[in-house]
Amino acid sequence: MKRTQIFLAVMWSVFSGVAITSQNIKNTAYITPIRALFETPSLYDGKEVIIKGEVIGDIIRDGTDYWINIKDENGFIGVIINSSQKEKIRYTGRYKMKGDIVKVSGVYHLHCPLHLGERDIHAEKFEIIENGYEVQEVMRTDKLIGSVVLGMITIFILLYSHKKSIHRDIYGQQS
Amino acid sequence: MKERFKKYIRIIDRWIIGIVLELIYPLITFSAAAILCFLMYLTVFIRR
Amino acid sequence: MIPYFSREDVGSILHYLGKIIKGVGILILIPFFIGVINKEWVPAIDFLFTFLLSIFIGDTLLLIFKEGKEINWRQGMSIVSLCWIIVMFLGAIPLYLSGHYIGYLDASFEAMSALATTGLTLVNDLDHMAYAYNFWRHLMCFIGGQGIILVALTLFVRGGSAFKVYVGEAREEKIMPNIIQTARFIWLVSLTYLVIGTAILFGINLWRNISPGRALFHAICLFMAGWDTAGFAVQSQNVLYYHSPVVELVTAMFFLLGAVNFGVHYAVWTGRPRELLRNYELKIYIVSILITFFLVCTGFIIHFQFPDFISFFREGFYQLISAHTGVGYSNITFHNFAYWPPLAILGIIIAMGLGGSSTSTSGGIKILRMGILLKGIKKEIKVLTSPGATVVVERFHHIRDIVIEDTHIKMAAIIIILYITLYLTGGLIGVFYGYPFLPSLFESVSASANVGLSMGITSPFMPTGLKITYIIQMWIGRLEFLSVFVLFRFLLSLKSPE
After folding, report:
1. Counting Cβ atoms within 10 Å, is residue C286 exposed (0-12), middle (13-18) or buried (19+)?
2. pLDDT tens profile C400-416
3. Do B40 and C265 touch (CB under 8 A)?
4. CA–CA separation, C72 vs C205, rounded Å?
5. ipTM of this model?
6. Is C156 on the interface with B (CB under 8 A)?
7. Measured between CB atoms, does B9 come within 8 Å of chain C?
């Protein structure tokens, strides 16, 4: 009785595990993590991949095309887009700014023959999934108070040392 | 006054020549390395 | 009898430290104003806080410890090594307050990495960092590369004391008879190139459609970290971010010049351009670059994987020149080292270990020492092969003709052995923490020679012990041992009674 229970429990866990992993594979099969493009380049080199991530920094012109840099959880890659795709981008990630989240599909090259050996993706499909937005700064009061207090102490010390040096100039150095 | 002016011109002249030469210097180094690299690249072709 | 340190020593050391801390405090105002200009109020408050704190500490020290007599050698050396640690802690405060670092240790690591012009980084989410913090990272590179003491020299310290602290900062040559003039000349060279380099990079950025403000910011930061062979960049991807061979060429030009001896700059700028061809150190430098590059190329040729010549040259040579000058700019990501053949990686490690010229902004063993050692070996062989009573003289040209003496060879050999020991010790500690040998050695050499290339060990999640190890390695590597040893002697003598 007990043995069958254990057997059933083991079987159940194995199957559920397989089910979960296969589901994961199904979900992530389309979107490749950028890190994987660099860690196992042989799997992806020259093949079409789909990546998703935030557009960061600047849109850099290169001839008639543009470079953008896309960042996901732990990876970065340069993507080449054309000028019509460039028009779609509204926000790029920087301080006080969250960039647009984009989904790009295109061919990944470990050493792109067109771009002097760059690691890049030539975007074929380019869509914006989430729009970027501006982020407000959060001022912390403890820092403000700390600065004010420190400022007052510093001014006090400056005045004190100044007074002392005047005193010394008049009455000479005291031992 | 004129002498002094000439002296300054000479100093600045040397300065600019120095900077230009120094900017050329790395380029020569890079070209040397590029030639070395190219020769080695040719060996790959010959082997294939 | 070795003289012990006395209470008087402590007084003058702390007095000068107070001055230096105040000087650094004033420099913190620069990122403060950048924050204000860009309406980044939170960073501005952080910098204001750090500014006030450093003025407070500096003034308190100056108030308690009055100016004593002229300092002596051991005091000078101790001041230098202590001030690097203290400035690291001060410089880390705004970085820590920025919230881009896991803890204060990480911020300190970043500050030491910037000051020692290494370029290893532990920052999180650099791409969303405020301009003010980012500028401070790069300004620290510039301050550290010029030398904290050199910066302080031009501001405060006068007279005979100046040379004693100057030498402590790993710059034994005086370019001009007067040390203050030397300091000014080093500033002149750096600022001239700052203007030229920034202008060129600014032009490239504008041409590539980056908005003017950001183009200027990128240009200044890229130049400061490149010239001072630090290797920080404005974005996480380092130079790869620009996807531009032109940017790579221009940065490579300037960091190669940054790794050239300031004495050579002086000679060339004052009407002796032949020095570029005659200088022994530069000759050895070029040969060394070519030899190490040969190793890298040979490594790649065994399993050749590049589509064409240019991508091969671009990837191989940029990492090599970056390693050899001690910069650490990289146009690949650290994952890409995975497909680099071991021979090529070894070539990079050797290049990193050798480093740039002496009295430049780069770290490592320094080419002049290798040159002197080679001449020494040649001299010994000549002595052994020549008949009894011959006097063997070896000489080389470095600014002027120098006859090699045994003391030169001895000093060079000692420092070289110490560096190799430091490299291996760091590698050993890396292996101890469970990393493979080659990456451990790579990272250790990169930290101690102040390069900043990484094979992926350096990350915010690496063990705390390893972070501390690398901080110490960067510190010792930048100051070239002697002043650090003097400091240790000082600390030991404080403990033991006279």
Report:
1. middle
2. 888 888 898 999 999 99
3. no
4. 49
5. 0.92
6. no
7. no
